[in-house]
Amino acid sequence: MTQFSVGEFRTVADGVLVAVAEPAGVNIGLVVGPSGCLVVDTGSSPAQGALIRERAEQAAGVPVVAVVVTHWHYDHFFGLAGFAGLPAYAHESVAEWLERPECAGDAAELGVDADALVAPNRPFSLARVVDVGGRRVEVVHFGRGHTDGDVVVFVPDAGVIFTGDLLESAGTPHFGPDCHLKEWPSAVDGVLGLVAEETVLVPGHGPVMDRLAAFTQRAEISGLYGQVEYLVARGVKIDDAWEQGEWPFDEQTVRAVLPLAYAQLAGEGKVPRTQLPLV
Ligand SMILES: [Zn+2]
Q1: From the CA of 2, how far away is ligand 1's center (Å)?
Q2: What pLDDT does residue 278 have?
Q3: How many angstroms separate the alpha carbon of residue 222 from the centre of ligand 1?
Q4: If you measure from the C-alpha of residue 228 to the centroid of ligand 1, how many angstroms do you get, rounded to a whole number?
Q5: How far is the CA of 275 from the centre of ligand 1 (A)?
Q6: How many domains does the chain contain in total?
Q7: Residue range 24-49: average pLDDT?
Q8: 157 and 220: one domain?
Q9: Ligand 1 centroid to 90 CA: how many Å?
Q10: Is the domain of 22 the same as that of 93?
Q11: 277 belongs to a structural domain
Q12: β-bridge mates for residue 38, sequence order
């Protein structure tokens, strides 16, 4: 049976805190304004979302006045029903995912009632400014990447960016079947455009990252797709790709993502051509 838990909120910058929620080790953000606070991501079930809301108010000493869902994956989104009555910001694609079988499948696996899940009530396509009890926070979608609807949360006065799963420090980035490998680096570029020397980046999973770590991961994600593109152009079939490539990630990660990478390249008409034998 899945074990749900929420750790303590710990300060990462002035009035900005992070707690870790299990089962997925997801970072839950808390931005505290003078008269209200904002929660970033909601945990893996409606009950966990309600607990996060309660813990956030205890830690902040002010009521939660808004919530942001960085993308539709269960560990970020399924707790939203625990924040009833509040403005809930997310990319407009999140509500569409709620209707899809992937979402119901994840709910069944977790033992969560799919009918209890709710859609965000403040969907947007590009960007919103949120007034967090007198503190200004920006939520921005920089394009497709880890999913088709990743949003990041920028707290300008604290120099903090919650990146969702566009970046990860708990391990390699999660290349699920719904990610967009080619466009992902551009979405990270959007984040990097906001980054200054001292900016604290809170990834979806794992400890906070600095600018160098974010640049490095951007290069690795870009390198992965670039390498597959190169191999396909040379006529290398998927079964030989691991041996013939130079990879920024471990073998297990690369082998898992190769079918997706080949499929996405095939979608652009790029397939390995069989070499004619030299006569
Ligand atoms: Zn995710």
Answers
A1: 18
A2: 62
A3: 18
A4: 23
A5: 39
A6: 2
A7: 98
A8: no
A9: 14
A10: yes
A11: no
A12: 31, 66
